[in-house]
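User: Sequence in, structure out. Go.
Assistant: Echoing your sequence, followed by the structure tokens.
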Amino acid sequence: MNFFDNIKNYIAHLDKKEFYKYSGASLGILILMTIGIMYYHYNRVHFWIKRIKIINEEREEIRKILDADQLVLNQRAQVDAMLAETPDYKLEGYFTDLVAKHGFDGSKKPSTEVTFGERNDPQYREVFLEAKFDSMTMQQLCELLDEIEQNKRIYTEKIEIKKSTKIPNTIMVNLTIATLQRKPEQTEIAE
């Protein structure tokens, strides 16, 4: 209490000019301190809002990555189940039956070539079958592609269509279809 009494006595003995000078200085210091505190507060709020926005954007990116990963895992499970159903599936045999079903016999039968492709996957490899049709109609091609599309195990990798030079109103088609197959284990390759 003694401290406050000393301040009270000091202020009481000031003349008006000095009182206004000290009051103005005190008020100015108080205003500057308030402005400094407000600046610091808004600066920190702005920093944290910006930081929260960045974190939310990163969180959304992570969510997208996790969703994509889950989709890949689901697709892998579907592929594993499909490959487990028929482990000895032969693409060439399926295609031969499909071509015969659509009436491509004898001279209309396409030439085929089977190749294997590597993937960035340790469990699977791709089996490609390239077929060359010299003369077929657009309707036959559509029916063939529709039949291929119905088989979930096979997908169309590439198709090239040219007007046939041999038979009018027909087309020449180079069709590449593919499927996935489990990679043979090292013991199977050695045998």
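User: And one key feature?
Assistant: The radius of gyration is 40 Å.
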